[in-house]
Amino acid sequence: MGLVLITEKRRLAMKKTYQGSCHCGRVRYEADIDLTEGTFKCNCSICTKARNWLTMVRPEAFRLLEGEAELSDYQFGAGKIHHLFCRNCGVRSFGWGDIPELGGKVYAVNVMCLDDLDVEELLDAPVTCFDGRNDNWQEPPAETRHL
């Protein structure tokens, strides 16, 4: 039991609170993120076209500060993921989904929209590629250089 508590404390200590926003600044949020836990890129149609680079955040670690009324929600396919974007500038700084395979509700934060992100932190963050185009979430796609 003590080891589990120590491990949890260490994990919480690795998290950093980042400020994020869309381009025009009407949508603002903060999120507690440990980039050493990894980031991901996906080859599904929307992630490819938007050039998404994301990290997952649990609901208790995400706080929308401003701009809820500025968000538009786009869903496609199975409709499990809410692809949110600012109505004014069009930037998709985060989205969310309720995905049982990931433990329920999660936020997908676009790491490129973190205003106070240090480039070195991003370069050190592990990147996993997912084959969303083929709904194969266990294997990376055959080609990832374009992601």
- Distance N to C terminus: 41 Å
> Structural class from helices and strands?
alpha+beta
Give a short account of the largest sheet.
5 strands, antiparallel
The beta-strand count equals 10
Oligomerization status of the protein chains = single chain
Radius of gyration from CA coordinates: 16 Å
Strand order of the largest sheet: 4-9-8-7-6
- Runs in which pLDDT lies below 50 for 5 or more consecutive residues are 1-7
Helix content estimate: 10-25%
Name the helix and strand elements from N-terminus to C-terminus, one letter apiece.
HEEEHEEEEEEHE
Write up this protein.
The strands form three sheets. A five-stranded antiparallel sheet has the order 4-9-8-7-6, with no helix packed on it. The protein has a three-stranded antiparallel sheet with strand order 1-2-5, with no helix packed on it. The N and C termini lie far apart (41 Å). 25% of the residues are buried. The radius of gyration is 16 Å and the shape is globular. The chain has helices at 2-14, 45-50, 119-124, and strands spanning 16-21, 28-33, 39-42, 54-57, 62-66, 71-74, 81-86, 94-99, 104-110, 127-130. The protein is α+β, with helices and mostly antiparallel strands. The longest helix has 13 residues, at 2-14. It is built from three helices and ten strands.
List keywords for this structure.
10 strands, 5-stranded antiparallel β-sheet, alpha+beta, disordered N terminus
Structure described in brief:
The chain is α+β, with helices and mostly antiparallel strands and 147 residues long. It contains 3 helices and 10 strands; from the N terminus they run αβββαββββββαβ.
